[in-house]
Amino acid sequence: MNPLLSDTLASLDKAVIGQDELKRSLLEALIAGGHVLIEGVPGLAKTRAVKALSMACGVDFKRLQFTPDLLPADIVGSQIYSAATEQFETRIGPIFANFVLADEINRAAPKVQAALLEAMQERQVTIGGETHRLPAPFLVFATQNPVEQEGTYPLPEAQVDRFLFKLTVDYPEPSDEARMVRLVMNETEPPQLEASLDAASIVELQEAGRAVHVENELITYATELVVTTRDASRHNLDFGELVDLGASPRASIALITAARAHALLDGREAATPEDVKAVAYRVLRHRILLSYHAQAEGVRSEEIIETLLERVPVR
To answer: What pLDDT, on a 0 to 100 scale, did the predictor assign at position 190?
Structure first.
């Protein structure tokens, strides 16, 4: 593993007990330059992990608490009339940061959620007809509670698709939970982590990720996985009435991008089918739209992905 990445992971270990998959996935997203949706019940260190990552990376970090009364201008900024100059002046919003945490993103109204769309896709925002570039690197981390539905607005498929990963955080092991209790008991204030990265080194890591070698056969394999979510008959599968909408071509790109990041994090210069399989769940679980029938039967998108990985051959 790259020494900078190993130091960053060690810093995360100091602030977040357990949740190894979450911490590794955050680093993969950092390398890939992709946004992350983190889902889990309250109290599982989702916000803490993102804050710890921002400290370990030494970048500008903003946390936005999404609430029903939030407005788009509260995120991207607006034009304010200045009596002194008798002109409108642009006041940028908190989205102008390297890392933006959209906490409980599904609690804000759809128009507020949509305010993130241009920023996430184009790395820019438009205020009063003027386009403003966002700083590099720019990553959005969003959290949501999958259980509580009162007063929430589910993200539309178009916006969910813009997240490279959807991570599901589960309860920690009992031994890790006991360590958490001891850590918090001894904390007088949140841990201040020493930065092992900065904005420039993160950009260099992202360039190194794009330099990881990918064979054409691996691209074909990743594409077959995604296309089969839309046409299961290609590999003699029958999802019947379970899948309403398969993954888009953006998923094929995401699989290869994430596989490169996974390989780089392991210290390898070429991606393999095992890298694609390792990232498949976090790349595809939010891009497969299950039918009402599947949800009523308790079918999860992870089961569809498991079937794909078992049946789609590596060529």
So the answer is: 67
Q: Please tell me the predicted confidence (pLDDT) of residue 153.
A: 86
Question: Would you say domain 213-311 falls under CATH 2.60.34.10?
Answer: no
User: What residues form DSSP beta bridges with 133?
Assistant: 124
d(CA 77, CA 9): 34
The rounded distance, in Å, linking the Cα atoms of 210 and 200 is: 16
Length, in residues, of the chain: 315
Paired tokens of 76: 């991207």
Cα–Cα distance measured from residue 188 to residue 178, given in angstroms and rounded to the nearest whole number: 18
Rounded CA-CA distance 140/116 in Å is: 9
**Which of the four CATH numbers 3.50.50.60, 1.10.630.10, 3.40.50.720, 3.40.50.300 does domain 3-184+196-203 have?**
3.40.50.300
- Which of 45, 288, 31, 281 lies closest to 165 in space, CA to CA? 281
**Separation between Cα atoms, residue 209 and residue 215, nearest integer Å:** 15
Number of C-beta neighbours around residue 78 at 10 A: 16
Are β-strands 289-290 and 243-245 bridged in parallel, bridged antiparallel, or unpaired?
A: antiparallel
Which alpha helices (H) appear in 186-300, and where do they start and end? 199-210, 216-230, 249-265, 273-284, 292-296
Q: What Rg value do the Cα atoms of the chain yield, rounded?
A: 20
Q: Identify the pLDDT of residue 26.
A: 97
Q: What does the block give as tokens for 279?
A: 């990232």
Q: Name the CA dihedral angle for 120, 148, 12, 95, rounded to a multiple of 10 degrees.
A: 30
Our measurement of the distance from residue 244's CA atom to the centroid of its chain's CA atoms, rounded to an integer in Å, reads: 23
Kindly give the parts of the chain with pLDDT less than 50: none
Helix axes 20-32, 199-210, angle to 10 degrees: 80
How high is the pLDDT of residue 104? 92
